[in-house]
Amino acid sequence: MTTRTPSEAASEKAGTTTxxxxxxxxxxxxxxxAKRRARPxxxxxxxxxxxxxxxxxxxxxxxxxxxxxxxxATVPIARDLDPDGGLAKIPWLVSSFQLAATAALPxxxxxxxxxxxxxxxxAALGTFLTGSALCGLARNMTELIAARALQGIGGGGLMSIxxxxxxxxxxxxxxxxGDHEHTGTGTGTGTSTGSGTGTGTGxxxxxxxxxVGGVMAGAGMALGxxxxxxxxxxxxxxxxxxxNLPVGIVVLIGAVLFLDLPGHPVRQSVDYLGAxxxxxxxxxxxxxxxxxGGRYPWASPELLGLVLAVCCxxxxxxxxxxxxxEPVLPLGLFRKRALRLSxxxxxxxxxxxxxxxxxxxxxxxxxxxxxxxxxxxxxxPMAIGMGLSGLLAGRLGGPARRTVVTGTLCAxxxxxxxxxSSADSSLWWLRGELLLAGTGFGMLIGRLLQYGQEQAxxxxxxxxxxxxxxxxxxxxxxxxxxxGSLLNRLTEGxxxxxxxxxxxxxxxxxxLVQSIDVVFFSVAGLLLLATALALRLPAPHPAAGTxxxxxxxVRRTPSAR
Length: 561
What we know:
By secondary structure, the protein is mostly helical. The chain contains 18 helices and 8 strands. Strands 1-8-5 form a 3-stranded antiparallel beta sheet. The protein has a 3-stranded antiparallel beta sheet with strand order 4-7-6. Strands 2-3 form a two-stranded antiparallel sheet.
């Protein structure tokens, strides 16, 4: 027996007949299950959709740029705010944003699924802008580090929730008009009026939205040091933070006016204890890698105590996620082989991207003595490669496994070639290697995100997206710390040289270059591991319980004519 929905009855009264596959949205929330029909979203015009996606992409660029934009201005900032001891605080200035963003990521996903993506998006954007203003007003390094942490809390939400918003906008119904029969393939219910106006959604929009969002995030990482160097050189370092305010305020106003997201969030209890344990675990782990072998020897009581704390916090976090009614990172996500493998591959890609950007900058500035702004400009081919390959991969489609395997192999070849660099290698050759690396990374960032979102369990799009971003961000932070320690160890015996290239002239520079080459070769090995894992990715298919995808054909009956 077929039961007509109110929309179908209204459509029939208007003189139309609608046939298709329609699905009700089911939201599953851990132990307590609530099923309710999603709030029908109003059909939006294509222009309205484009405005919403443009606002989101601008937000992603702001957040990701600020993760790396400070790297080109650390020395001028330290000299201005604390000429005597500022250089010793630079590591905290660089890592405070990433620490806070990584720690806050798990909470944002659950808040998005519970309170709605728009509310959480606006709150994260407001926090980010407040932190940006306080960074620009900082009077000393301590204030700046604290403001960077606040900025990172907001930035962590923007890097994850914005991708959820992009997905929701791209898959929302779009209004189309015409006098002809309208046939479309999409998700949800197709409706039509007698005037020939129809609505439909397609999975392609969601794929392109997620893919473009991921590519913009990666390109922002590559362009951050260059933009930071330009602003510092021409306007002063405070404008690195002030430039966020006018752009962010425009996005904030536009989001209030134009973002009308489909679906209806199910009110759930939020596992704040689990979020606190995740934040404590991530922060303590990064501190171990940041301090190990530097501030404290690896076998020192202080560091061993931190390692013990990491193990205890991880155990408590896993226990909490297994017992909480509404976990921030449901362990059920890891039961799906597709998500489990994509999380690991995403983490390895995060390591590779961060290490490539950071250590190419070190190579150029310390070994080649290139100025900060000029060194950042050398990363432009990487950003171009990421943008072009990411957009092409999104438009051409194809199996996710093939795209990810191709991307990891391209990046692995590029890192291997970077590992052959010498102190007098051609910069044009370096640009070609970075272009190839960007081409590989561009295939990975957006496609992996889209693949994970396709596998998200019903009602858990937010936590799945933030889990993907969490592993990528954590991988980047861990990679920077691990390979930083490796580089320090390799350069300790290189003619008395160090990371800054200081030592006995050419011998120190040669030792630094050789140590950086070892880092690049090591990362190439990790990318080959990512390739092996990507070969095991199962073919993507919608998770059980998600709205069905079918073909809806809308015909106007004779009475409508």
